[in-house]
Amino acid sequence: MTFHPDDLPDLSGRVYIVTGGTSGIGYYTAARLAQHGARVYICARSDTKGRKTIEGIQSLYRNAKLDMLVMDHENLGTVASAAKEFTSKETALHGLVNNAGIMATPYKMTQDGYEAQFQTNHIAHWLFTSHLVPIMLKTSKTAPTGTVRITNLTSGGYMMAPKAGVNFDDTSLIKSSTIARYGQSKLANILHAKILHQQYGPGSASAKAGQGEIWTSSIHPGIVNTGLDDKATEAPLVMKVLTHCVDSFGGRWPADKGAWTSVFCAASPQMKKEDSGAYYERIAKVVKPGAMARDLNLAEKLDVWTRQEMESKRLL
User: Fold this and answer.
1) Pairing relationship of beta strands 149-153 and 253-254 according to DSSP bridges
2) Per the similarity annotation, which family is this (predicted)?
């Protein structure tokens, strides 16, 4: 499929949220949506980062309508608070792009008691999404069919997840490598999009009952110059050599172009109803992922596990 962000229609009146919107793919996803008239909330770890991002995007698109939500994915209380702040300000949400992520970082447990990659990449997004689903379902009842969407950024690195996919006995994977921990978290992103499709997508009980319909997707953007791998201090040498080789042959894309599939899945009318729940690669190409990423039983188990964890911490 041929797609360019310039192909987007006028998005005036629509509202979007982009996590990890202060740099890389998230920055340009927010910018492209705002370019076409949408109001975009950028999630940032600090007020300073958020304001700097807004100024940067408005220097590209003078009339960009931007706001921010301050939250730290390694502090789940701030994630829940940010979602509640949004719903206190807005009455509609057309698109949520769960973009924030970390990769191959040193082993670390957060203050909430989870391994940092698993919390940042999966748990925080699951929690944030859960708080926002009600307003999205409400929005979908009056919006044109298929315009309310949730997009999860993942990675082909999901294939490095443990053999079982997700180790529910020890999601921290303390005895495993950092790349296995990353793989588990990225697999979780795909499974999350899959279960959301089952719950709220076309043909779901929610859609059939007229309670709302949300289209979902998960995206592997390819190797993009986001700076994420520069922070991957624990990444195996082979990964760094591979990335260098890709760079040498011009295979790494700039962050703006790397965001095109995110923009497509968030807002393009070219997305098809039957592709809700699908796994995408660049640019806007539906691809069949590996067996673990298609395992609905695993997706359901992960959803139940995450919900129980969040309920036990009274975050829902």
Assistant:
1) unpaired
2) Belongs to the short-chain dehydrogenases/reductases (SDR) family.
